Amino acid sequence: MLAALTAAGAPSTPAEVRERISADLAYTTVMTTLVRLHEKGLLARERDGRAHRYWVADAAEVAAARMRQALEASDRRDAVLARFVGDLPPEDVPVLERLLRDAERRG
């Protein structure tokens, strides 16, 4: 399915993905698989009427989704963030500081 989405070159509905893959899968199977890949952060999506259009997430989207999952899964968000910040290379610290200031200004 990831190959079909990549080859499409544009966000696709489950029905469009189903048409592109050679396997004889039910629509609900394709839809469930796309939803699960989205939940894992591998796909991004947007609503299109009653359906969603999916596309392969870029590296930044995947990393952000995994960070959100780690934060949501922990009862010690401070520990997760401290570990992340502690593992940053020194050249990334000013970038993170700037992004935090920008986020604080936006509210």
Mean pLDDT: 92
Can you list the strand order of the major beta sheet? 1-2
Number of helices: 6
- What share of residues is helical? 55-70%
The CATH architecture designation of the largest domain is Orthogonal Bundle
Domain tally: 2
Unreliable sequence segments:
none
CATH superfamily assignment of the largest domain?
Answer: Winged helix-like DNA-binding domain superfamily/Winged helix DNA-binding domain
Sequence of secondary-structure elements = HHHEEHHH
Pairing-aware structural class of the strands and helices? mainly alpha
Strand residue content:
5-15%
What is the level 1 CATH name of the largest domain? Mainly Alpha
- As a whole number of angstroms, the C-alpha radius of gyration is 18 Å
Can you tell me the CATH topology of the largest domain? Answer: Arc Repressor Mutant, subunit A
Cα distance, first to last residue? 38 Å
The main pleated sheet reads as: 2 strands, antiparallel
GO molecular function: DNA binding
Family: Belongs to the BlaI transcriptional regulatory family.
GO biological process, one term: negative regulation of DNA-templated transcription
Protein name: Putative transcriptional regulator
